């Protein structure tokens, strides 16, 4: 039986190495392909008014894909919430109040992190960032807070019910925003807001709105995941 | 592009992750290897069109000749955050399994499930 | 240049991380890997991706992994195998003491984990702190003084099986002193024997043919007990209270009838 196993292991290694070797041979000397992104680079700013081409692509040209990604995110968070609801940690580790140093530095750092996250979200169409990055940074800031103060304390200050309702409202708002142009006689996912001068905050059409909504959604989603994990397994 | 670029390294990482996924028995390490495979795919997509002196795809001035392709970056940006949520869900299942069978060894868990199913 | 160096470092870190034995080191290694990857993205002119990867890969993913690999609360029991009290049936553990301990663990909100060892390894394991409670037909007065014993739960009797007085004690039979199966084997092969057994073990042995042996019931009273790790003295009172409650409710009688009849 173990001979059989080690033969299988050898087969597996050989297969994986051969697969990677073939891929390497195919791609190793492939030069940069000029054609695929040129269109976006040439016409991006004119079409969307956003200076950050990456934002322009996934919030304007490819908004459809982003909507479904948001949906996947929501369902994953919902799944975590569902499966960890009834299970309470029976051996809950008592949350030891963190040392003074940690709490002080969390006091200092948390506002900075939040400001950075808001900057990433609001200026997402002008500089690197966007809703996803900003939401993730805000989530990790809240994680710092919960490590320093205790997740129970943070959760109590945050009014979970209100947060849950806001999260689903944000999702609904994103979907409605995407469907709104239908009322104005335009195709769905069309950008209704004005383009504005590229380089100013008030530009890029509804990219800013999407960034705000997505940032909020990702922030609340990551906090929910972390909170449910901590509730299930004990404090960090 | 030189021989050592993002695409080649991502293929090597893919192979390492795949081997780790197959040969490590611990469920948590399997998930880590899966995350590695994810990261390697994203690295490949991001570095498909990189060349020396490429500029960030955020247009400051009128010079747009050297700007790197923004399309793959846009595709993977949301993927990174979504992968985190999906990884969290996968970890929830692993945690529930571990709590049920008191081991993270995948072979033992399969054993227990088999014997539970047969008895 | 820096990009090449970082790119070369990536597979090294990844391979080292995935080969780790300890899960915590692997998780931290993947956090380091994410940071390196984020630097590579930055050098590849993808700052949005770099920010997202840094925020997610280093902070959030590491935290949920650390939470996931934390051990859940367990009540570790070490015991020797005695059919009727603590025995194995295939993969499951059955027996009177197992039922009692399972109820106790459920009351504490922990999971029960039973480990089977030879009789003589029980006390060292308990003293080393590898287990919380010891079970398996342990008779009061038989063990070292520094271990705590719980209030007795099942009166038993001692039996002595003799074939030839002064015969070799079991230790010289080539098996360890602990295993009940050695005694059963010896009886089956009609080997000379001089052992003192408690009730449950005697019931197991008496299923074999005992002709040629002298069986003598010793007059002294004894009882089964659990042994508790001296560091977990709080368990003694809790276990005593639990056993008292079980006796009041009559569940203990039901268990005894089920397993020892």
Would you kindly provide a written description of the structure presented here, covering whatever features stand out?
The complex is a heterotrimer of chains A (236), B (119) and C (261). Chain A is mainly α and 236 residues long. Chain A has helices at residues 2-27, 38-48, 53-61, 63-83, 100-122, 131-149, 151-158, 160-179, 207-233. In chain A, helix 4 runs antiparallel to helix 8 (160-179), helix 6 (131-149) crosses helix 7 (151-158) and helix 8 (160-179) runs antiparallel to helix 9 (207-233). Chain B contains four helices and no strands. Chain B has helices spanning 6-23, 27-46, 71-101, 106-118. In chain B, helix 1 packs antiparallel against helix 2 (27-46) and helix 2 (27-46) packs antiparallel against helix 3 (71-101). The longest helix of chain B has 31 residues, at 71-101. In chain C, 48% of the residues lie in helices and 21% in strands. Chain C contains nine helices and nine strands. Chain C has helices spanning 2-18, 23-43, 47-68, 96-108, 119-128, 180-188, 199-205, 234-249, 251-260, and strands at 74-79, 87-89, 92-94, 111-116, 133-139, 148-149, 154-162, 194-198, 214-228. In chain C, strand 2 (87-89) and strand 3 (92-94) form a beta hairpin. The longest helix of chain C is centred in the N-terminal third of the chain and has 22 residues, at 47-68. The N and C termini of chain C lie far apart (79 Å). The model of chain C is unreliable at 171-177 (pLDDT under 50). Chains in contact: A-B, A-C, B-C. At the A-B interface, helix 1, helix 2, helix 3, helix 4 and helix 6 of A face helix 1 and helix 3 of B.
